[in-house]
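User: My instructor asked us to take a sequence, write out its structure as tokens, and then describe one feature of it. I'm not sure where to start. Here is the sequence I was given:
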Amino acid sequence: MPPSPPPRPLAPVDAAPWNAPLAELSPAYFGLVMATGIIALGAHMMGRALLAQALLWLNLLQYAGLCLLYGLRAWCYPQQFGRDLIDHLRGPGFFTTVAASGILASQAMVQLECLPLGVALWALAVLLWLLLTYTIFAAFTVKQDKPPLDKGISGAWLLAVVATQSLAVSSCLLAARIGQPLRLELNLLALSMWLWGGMLYIWMMSLIFYRYTFFRFAPSDLSPPYWINMGAMAISTLAGALLIQNAPHAPFLAQLLPFVKGFTLLYWATGTWWIPMLLVLGIWRHVYRRFPLHYDPLYWGAVFPLGMYAASTWQMDKAMEFGFLRSLPQVFWWVALAAWALAFVGMLRRLVRSVLRWPVK
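Assistant: Let's start with the prediction itself. The structure tokens for your sequence are:
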């Protein structure tokens, strides 16, 4: 029996000019929803109701539009979609779908006070977390061709931590709004996800820090998702602060209160440590090495941590009853809003240029 011929390589994606952006859509584009959502929640916390509502409705539209675009991409370009899913650099970007769903669930509960919508989005986030966690990391484990550490890991991997902690946050908010028999179970789920997210950060951050300090580092390697080094700790702080606030309604949380408070402060201090480091590296990249600064969908991964740091510091100050940190989150919220506005204008300019390049028939 003659040997079977070797399998032919996958053909490259042949996209027409008008749908090329769909073929190349970044798996991390739901970072737009994450960034808009956390800035809206920050505005709501700080009493800026009109802006918070405007950003909420904008975020609902963005989420619906991105769901449609992702669905179309999976339908039209299934091979490229599947390759991205198991790619070491692009695959973790899909965790933005989980975090975006969790953030929007939080907005539905806090801003809209619409519990059914919040529950639906929370359930979707849980389902996506299960599917993506055990698909992506199982694929990374069993695939034959793997990149070396310095080519295969980036700050985007920490989106898995952000996704996990977004479930902790939304579960806390849901538990605070319902009664028994599910309140205790939701608080336990939130605590478990909070602890697992912290463990995952330790694993991943060890590899990222090792890559930082023992491999050659070029300006192109310092992509915007490295800000998630801080953002993952900020959302962990937010989840911890909400667990502290839920402690009066969950006896096991009350028993663990010193532990939860200690780790919440640890997360906040770690995130705070990253801010000067990331600013120094950004200056090295764009000023000293003159790396061009232009719009990239990955920049939403830098806007989100700024907004999350503001929101988490606000809630931690409230939960811990410090009182002296209240001005810090307000400063960071304004910085995050400015960064969001710049990125949003850049996105609109990119969209307009793409439309103008379409051929006219």
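For the description part of your assignment, you could build on this observation: Residues 317 and 323 are 6 Å apart (CA to CA). Try explaining in your own words what that tells you about the chain.
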